[in-house]
Each structure stands twice: as structure tokens, then as C-alpha cells.
Design brief:
By secondary structure, this protein is mainly β. Strands 1, 2, 3, 4, 5, 6, 7, 8, 9, 10, 11, 12, 13 and 14 form a 14-stranded mixed sheet that branches. A hairpin with a 2-residue loop joins strand 7 and strand 8. The longest helix has 11 residues. It is globular and about 50 Å long. The N and C termini lie far apart (42 Å).
């Protein structure tokens, strides 16, 4: 990969994307967005060689399972194996982190998952996208990109798939259920809300 700019430790900045392949989303006959982020955000890519590429407009194509980056109006496939990437911080100071699932737990799906909370109990989000052909009555078939979101917890090396609901929380964390009922009530949290689950898991890790 051709790069430019100064090197501080192992941090590098892509200034010449010509050694990377152009990105084609193949959306001419499809409806929907194959990317997991709704907008392009500045972030950092960590390669498997341990090199950090900073200040990149980064995203992830869940159909092609490829990390992509944008420079100007052009989008490219990142051509080095990627260990993880981050985007942000956003207006609230939050940095979103996406890691290789096979390096996190062998039973986690796909290639990249988002780390929502980490510690003794880890909370992960996986967004899968697929192309589905839809045919309406008396119409030409069309292809839609459909999205499915799944959540997982890992604790003591064990993986649990969880549903964002009161029952799902009780089943996922039975040893904490009584305390968590009080914690949610005191803080106005809902077990159906992703952001509130993050607060709940963080409270368990303290």
C-alpha cells in the first residue's frame, strides 16, 4: 500500500490510494445500502501487521464483507488484512469499535462485529445484510438489501445470543436480575433499548 506523511510510532495516514482497488457496490439493480454506517465518518484502521491508518473516512460493506475508505469522491477497498477499525468520536464523544469476530470468539458470526461494551462481560452487535429478490404482482422482480441485527454477550468464555427485552435480560444475566431491576428503575432504563443495555452491562462490569 502506498502511503505518505510522517510516521509516529506505527501510525500512518493514507495519502495515495492508487495501490488500493476501486470499490464497486453493484447497486445498479438493487435497493438499499450495503454499508453498515449510514454516513462516512473519520476513523482509524488497524491492520493485522499492527499499523494504524488514522484520519480515514471508513465504512464496511456487509455484502462484500470488505472494509472500504473514501478519499475525495472516490471509494476504495482497503487491500490489507484488517484487525479492527474505529469511527468517531461523535458529538457525544463516543468512539465506535469494530473487531474481527474470529479473533474474539470462535462462535461469533461474520467477519466484523461492533463492541458495545467490554470487560468481564462483553456486549457485541452484529449487522448482517443480504440481497433478496422481491416480486410484486404483475411487476418486474427487484433486488432489495435487507438488514438483520443480532446481539451477543460473552462471559467466562461462553457466548450467549441475546434478545433486547426484559425476558432476554433475565435469561442472559440471571445472577444480576434482581439488582438490575432496581438499577433500571432508578435510571429510567428500558431492556428494549440498545443504549440502555450498554449502560446495564457497564454497571455489571464495575
Amino acid at each position: 500500500m502506498m502511503i505518505g506523511g510522517s510516521i509516529v510510532g506505527k501510525a500512518q495516514v493514507i495519502s495515495d490510494p492508487q495501490s488500493n482497488r476501486p470499490y464497486y457496490s453493484s447497486l445498479n439493480d438493487q435497493t438499499g445500502n450495503p454499508l453498515i454506517l449510514d454516513s462516512w465518518e473519520s476513523g482509524t484502521i488497524l491492520s493485522e501487521k499492527g499499523i494504524r491508518y488514522k484520519g480515514i473516512q471508513v465504512n464496511y460493506d456487509a455484502i462484500q464483507k470488505s472494509v472500504v475508505f473514501k478519499t475525495g469522491e472516490s471509494v476504495y477497498l482497503f487491500n490489507e488484512p484488517v484487525q479492527e477499525f474505529t469511527v468517531g468520536p461523535d458529538a457525544e464523544g463516543r468512539i465506535r469499535r469494530f473487531v474481527r469476530s474470529d479473533k474474539t470468539h470462535p462462535e461469533l458470526p461474520a467477519v466484523f462485529i461492533e463492541v458495545l461494551a467490554s470487560g468481564r462481560i462483553c456486549f457485541y452487535k452484529h449487522v448482517a445484510k443480504s440481497v433478496v429478490e422481491v416480486t410484486d404482482y404483475n411487476s418486474v422482480p427487484r433486488k432489495n438489501i435487507e438488514s438483520k441485527t443480532s446481539y451477543f454477550l460473552t462471559q467466562d468464555g461462553k457466548l450467549k445470543r441475546v434478545i433486547l427485552s426484559k425476558k432476554g435480560l433475565q435469561e442472559a444475566l440471571p445472577d444480576h436480575s434482581t439488582r438490575l431491576e432496581s438499577f433500571m428503575s432508578q435510571n429510567g432504563l428500558s431492556p428494549k433499548n440498545e443504549a440502555d443495555w450498554i449502560k446495564i452491562i457497564e454497571s455489571c462490569n464495575k
